[in-house]
Amino acid sequence: MASVAPLISLFKFCILEDYKSVLGGKIMRFVYLRSASVIVIAALALSTAGMAQAQETDQLTSDQDQSSGGSTFLDDVIVVTGTKKAGGENVQDAALAITAYGSETLDALQVRDISSLSFKMPNVALDEVGTTKGVANFAIRGLGVNSSIPSIDPAVGVFVDGVYLGINGGVVFDTFDLESVEVLRGPQGILFGRNVTGGAVLLNTADPKNEFQTTAKLIAESGLRGTGGNYYAMGTVTGPIVEDKLSAKLALYYNKDDGWFKNTLASGETETFGESETVIVRAAIKVTPNDIGNFTLKFEHGEADGQGPANQNHINGRGVEAAPLNPPGTSGRFSRESFDFSIDELGFFDTSWNQVIATINVDVNIGDGGSIVNVFGWREYEQTARSDIDGTPLSLFHGDFATKQNQISNELRFNGRFGDMVDLTTGIYYFSQKLVYTEGRDLLGALTPTGVPALTQHGGGIVDQETFGVFAAVDIDLTDSFSINAGIRYADETKDAQVASLVNNVNTPCNVIAGTCAFDFVDIFQTSNWSPKIGIGYEFSPDARMYAHWARAYRAGGFNLRNTAADKVNFGPGPFQDEQIDSFELGFKSEPMPRSRLNFAVFYNQMESLQREILLTDPIAGIVQVIRNTADATIWGVEIDGQIEILPGLLLEGSLGYVDGDYKNVVFDLNGDGVIDTDDASLQIPRLANWTGNIGLIAEQEMDFGTLTGRVAYSHRDGAALTDNNLGFLNPSDRIDASVSFALMDGDMTFTLYGKNLTNDVQHGGDTLLPDILGPVPLGGTLAPLSRGRTFGIELRLNSF
Fold first, then answer.
1. In what order do the strands lie in the sheet with 768-769?
2. Cis amide bond preceding 575, omega within 30
3. Domain limits at 792?
4. What are the tens digits of pLDDT across the range 167-215?
5. Which CATH number does the domain housing residue 679 bear?
6. Mean pLDDT, all residues of the chain
7. Complete edge-to-edge strand list for the sheet that includes strand 163-164
8. If 0-12 CB within 10 Å is exposed, 13-18 middle and 19+ buried, where does residue 267 land?
């Protein structure tokens, strides 16, 4: 982090060090030990009392109408950008299943990164893969990926200020300074292109404001019982430079994590594990030269480094546990219901990124008025990492990884109204990226006197990608109540790949990024397709409406840059083909009473050429990952979400999701028994958790000294198969989050005590089987990166200081 070291030092000295000292020592321990009981008791007490006013939350637009009186939380009209209509659209009017969070809600939920929202929405899992820091493993409605290979395109696309992130890397880092988060469930191929077969996640950072504003947050949290502290400091200053013409924003973020986990070393000693440090700088300007247009330029620089993943080894789906050459108790034979693990390789990650996003909005006199929007994006991302793959205190299987990615994109679109009937959105899109990946595997170091690996493998590859698209979507209001919506997108994509197979570089170290690996596979993948959509909408009343549509979308094919298979014909780098989804959805949205909403959706998806990352064990390479189009399948499900003010100032909110699916035409040996038969077709589809749900109470009381707010929420997610052979799986989850906030000085100062995952629920980013035998050594068990458990925190938020 040398490039921003002076900034980090100044930020730590001015803010973080004083903050840690004030909350340190006995005071910190005293507060932490009582946080759980205070949070739960206060939240439940608030929920049973008569409240004067409900929780204040999201104001996504500056001209929000609060004239109806009462609570700003319940009266708030959430405007979303996901439909790409000029000025946005009311989330309740959007004819799709969408959940949106504004900045106030994100603050109130103590969202530190996007994965914090995983348990808040039906049929949504915004998980981190775990093996490499910051890599997304998102799934919506049972569609997702289970690999850190950067050349695999996601099923859930992530967009920052309208710019698509070309790889899953660098997605799950700390988020702050957000205006809103929008999660769109179901295929979004018309407006967002390829790789959104499951859905899309939109992160919208705050624009510079025309009024001078300053905000700051100071946070300290810990899991107690020997876990380290985790400290945050972030601040934003924004305001006009030239009144009504030019405004600017500077936002700074710093996080120092001393580690939540405890690693039991081979010596029997235990130390805190999971240290990391993150800094993010955002700068933006907004130019408004006249009443018909504006230009916004945003720059972001981020750096993060720390220790590697907390990889647990436990009994795998075949009932085989880790059995390395050391006594029981230190072998890594841990329960998947515990946070215990023991690794000798602490590993590391070192990540940096830069991005520039330029947006032009111009009002035009076309039809009855419209707007032209151009969004340009550039991003570069680099990460190096090392992990203990075997998850034991012996040097058996360690890995090095490095990724470099550079992307550029541009979208030019028009949205306008024609007469009283037609709303049109159309545009063109261009995306280009260069992805370079290199990997090294150190195997069987425990067998040599010096610990030098007895076997090494190296490889990786390069992909140059270019994508072009053109799209149009139209809403036609046939009557005041009935409308038709339709759209189509054409996409053309080319991927040029060069691969250095790891099996071709045994005990001959090389590095693709450094240009020292010889490529043994070269190919070009070209594809083009049409993504249509047609639907209807009907408004029963101003407070109730329904929609129905059919849509087709694609997940891009390509190449596997992590090729460890000698058989390049059946298991090699590819190419694998596009995945196609046809989605049928029926939805109903309503506001049955003031300050309440109830939404319902039912969907049925047909997938052709389902694209899967198949995990195989190998006694030499350890793990072989094969990417193939494995089957056709169907997935269907139901979603309900809503909120109701059950008493003045007392809000009940919740959601419920169910999803199920079956294979229809299997063309790959999924269970690895040597034949393709009904046993393969009867397997569960990976990442498909049948039931998800959450329920919460939010209460607010006006008091003489300020406003007291309590929140308590319970969430559940069923367990799910992770691997295609169903021998690796993810735990079911039951967790409780709670918080109590005290807002003083008309909300300019807010003090919050919170607890997250109070049930200490154990979750893993993956569950990959390891070979029973690695070389001559018994191994077994799984590669299962742990997620954090119970955490208590204290937060001080300042506005207009």
1. 311-312, 782-785, 768-769
2. yes
3. 2-799
4. 988 888 777 899 999 999 999 999 999 999 999 999 999 999 999 999 9
5. 2.40.170.20
6. 88
7. 97-102, 178-185, 199-205, 156-160, 163-164
8. exposed
